[in-house]
Design a protein that fits this description.
Elements: E1 2-16, E2 23-27, E3 30-39, E4 44-64, E5 70-90, E6 95-104, E7 111-115, E8 122-138, E9 144-161, E10 166-183, E11 189-205
Antiparallel strand pairs: 1-10, 2-7, 3-6, 4-5, 5-9, 6-8, 7-8, 8-11, 9-10
């Protein structure tokens, strides 16, 4: 008897607001988890569990007014959590598990902000790429079971304000991936899954031209 279960889900939520508008800020990141299990010959079992999280925030303010409050402000931050677990058990058949889970700054180099002085031009760019892969195998032989789980949660945001306007953008990514092989004696099974998601957000605006006399 052989049972193969595959499940993968990726949810992406984007929230953005238009902006009008010299602060320069940037953040890049690269988070990842990799695990593998191999069992060869004889009854055996193995398990792996990994997790990682990060929180990064930065903010700036310039050009204080008469009260000492900044007239141009900008801030950006990221928060992420990755979790990965794998388990294998066999009565003698060869089994294998390999998993990769990664979050990177994407095609636009993470987060970048260029906010002009007073009513000057403003631009915000942020991107992220999620990748999850799973490879499970069971060779010919006795009963065996192998399963793997990838979970990822990520959020980043940017806000700015100057004398002309204010703006912000916030993407969230939630991804989950689960695979399982349960095989009886002499059964052979292979499972390969891939989960991907990518987000790119760009806001760019210039202040309206000065009225002509």
């Amino acid at each position: 008897m052989k049972k193969v279960i595959l499940a993968a889900v990726v949810a992406v939520l984007l929230v953005g607001s238009s902006a009008i508008g010299q602060i320069t800020e940037g953040q890049n990141w690269n988070l990842g988890l990799t695990d593998s299990l191999t069992l060869l010959g004889g009854p055996s079992e193995a398990q792996t569990i990994q997790g990682i999280g990060t929180l990064n925030v930065q903010a700036l303010g310039i050009n204080p007014d008469m009260n000492g409050d900044p007239t141009v402000t900008a801030g950006e931050g990221i928060a992420a959590a990755l979790f990965q677990t794998g388990e294998a058990e066999t009565d003698g058949a060869a089994v294998g598990l390999g998993q990769v889970l990664s979050l990177t700054g994407g095609t636009q180099n993470g987060q970048q902000q260029q906010i002009g002085d007073l009513a000057g031009p403003a631009k915000e760019t942020q991107s992220v790429a999620l990748l999850g892969t799973q490879n499970l195998t069971k060779g010919i032989g006795s009963n065996a079971e192998v399963e793997g789980l990838n979970l990822a949660g990520f959020g980043m945001g940017q806000v700015f304000e100057n004398n002309c306007a204010e703006g912000g953008q916030l993407p969230l990514i939630i991804g989950g991936q689960f695979s399982e092989i349960e095989g009886a004696a002499q059964a052979v099974a292979v499972v390969a899954t891939t989960m991907t998601a990518s987000v790119v957000q760009v806001q760019s605006a210039n202040a309206p031209p000065a009225p002509q006399p």
